[in-house]
Hints:
Elements: H1 2-20, E1 29-44, E2 57-67, E3 72-86, H2 99-104, E4 106-122, E5 136-156, H3 162-165, E6 167-185, E7 190-200, E8 224-239, H4 243-246
Antiparallel strand pairs: 1-2, 1-8, 2-3, 3-4, 4-5, 5-6, 6-7, 7-8
Amino acid sequence: MTIARFSSALPASLLVGSAFFLATPALAQHTSELGIGIGATNYKGELSPQLQWQNSRPALNIFYRYDVSAPVTLRGGFIIGGLRANDANVGGVTGGVSPLQGYRQTRMYGTVLEFSGIVEYNFLDYHLRQEQHRTRFTPYLFGGLAGYYVNTTTESQNVALQPNFNRSGGRAGISIPAGAGIKLAVSEHINLGLEMGVRKTFTDQLDHLGDQDPLYVNSHDQDWYYYSGISVSYTFYKILCPPTYKHNKRLLE
């Protein structure tokens, strides 16, 4: 429910914020960033009805950012990380493992690859760094579109369920990334970042548990995956030449 409210509120926030910055003058320079991050990927689905931090697996993130205006940044990125979940981690109302999960005794593990195109909305003017030795930062929201490939293996310890539950294989699809983060410019070129984001998919088969007996699985909820991490990036600057000088380069002599 919280995720749904967040996802619906994000586009509205981006729209309102962008309207507020319509009067922002064009920058005298463009900046871009090349960065790398480490963090964790996670999963929510049949084997993890809520986000469970103990299921987090290591992940690597490589990205490129390009500013469009003071508030808006475009980002392309690649993420590779692990996925895992286990019925044994889902607690019951009175403690211990829930009865359904205790009967299924199923676990899932695998890998996710993602290529994404994302729009970031910066609440503060993060790009303009005219004052030297001044640390700049901004919180931001982001949303976009991503293509993913997930390869997972699902296994049940219940012999009666193994014929239908023991599966493995890959699946490609489209997801909707959304989330929030903070950027910190510690010098003219070096930046640090912290980000948390969700990925809404349009399938119930990341864990291969969507078409079994409805007594044992919920086929009405789609699967999600997450990425959270820290990053470091390097800023490149491009000075924009005014049209007067661009068309008459002798003025620069």
